[in-house]
Amino acid sequence: MLCNRSFPIPPINKVTAVITQHNVHHHKRLDILRLFQSHQTRTMEVEANTNSSHMRAVGLDFLTKKAYTPPSWASHINPIPSHIFSLGHLPTPIHKWNLPNLPTNTEVWLKRDDLSGMQLSGNKVRKLEFLMADAVAKGADCIITIGGIQSNHCRATAVAAKYLNLDCYLILRTSKVLVDQDPGLTGNLLVERLVGAHVELISKEEYAKFGSGDLTNLLKERLLKEGRRPYVIPVGGSNSLGTWGYIEAIREIEEQLQSGTDKVKFDDIVVACGSGGTIAGLGLGSWLSSLKAKVRAFSVCDDPDYFYDYVQGLLDGLEAGVDSRDIVNVQNVRVWAMQ
Fold this sequence. Notes:
Helices cover 38% and strands 17% of the residues.
C-alpha cells in the first residue's frame, strides 16, 4: 500500500515553544492521500552598477509584481513570461576568488547568489520569481512542490508562498526507516514548519516507483476535490518558465561586466546540477547574449545523458532552436572525482 504521511503544523508560537523547551513534537501517521491507494488500480500516467536601467533598488520593490521585459537577445524565445515577482535581493555581487596554485593566466570569480536573501538564498529564488508570479496570475491559493527532506528549493518555496499569503504543501523524500517518524525541526525543516508549510513524507522507494510528477499530481487532485486552487512547481523549480530565472541571471552578469572598471571576460561558468533548470537558463542565456561562456555542470545525481535530455526538453519548451549539448557540458561529480 502506498500512502503518504502528514504531520500537523503547530502555529509559530507553538513551534517556538517546542524549540525553547526542547519538547518532542508528537505526530501521528495519516493516510491523507487516499488517491495513492486508488491510483494503484490504474496506470500511473563585479558589484552591480545601480545606475543601470535594469538593476533593482533592493528593498523598494520587494514583493512587488511587475510586467516583465526580456533581454533583447532573448526576445524571440516563446513563451515570454508576462510578469515577475521581486523576491530576491538582486543583483548579487561577483567576487574574485584568490585561490593558490592556479594555472598561469587563470582567474576564478564567484557569483554570490548565496546573498540573494536570507530565507530565499541560493539559485532557487530566481526561478521562483517567475513561477510565483504565474501562480498568482492563475488564481492559485496554494503551492505544491516536492524534493528531498532537506531540500533548499522546498524551503525557498515555502517562504515565498508565505510572503504571498499562499498555503504550501511539501512532499519530502526520506528513508523508509524515517518515513513514519516526525521529521523534526532541523535545518530547512525548521524554516518550512515555522512558515506553516504542510509537510508530507514519502519514502525513497515510493518516490522511485511513482516519480515526482505523479506524486505532485495526485496531491493536486486531492486538493482540487477539496475546493482548493493548487499550483504545482516541479523538483527544483526546473521547468521552461523557471528557466527564465537564469536567463535573467545572464543579463545581470552581462550588465555587471559592462559597468565594471576592469575588462573581465569569462570563458566558463561552472555550477552544480541537481534538477537541470539552472544550467538550461545559464546555457541558453550565455549562448544568446554577448557572454558566450561555456556552461560546465557537475551533476550530483543522475548521469549526463539524463540532464542533456531534460535540458533539451526545457529548451524545446521555449522554442529555443538549440541543442543542449552545444551549450552545456555535464559531468557526473562522482565519476569526475575518481578520475
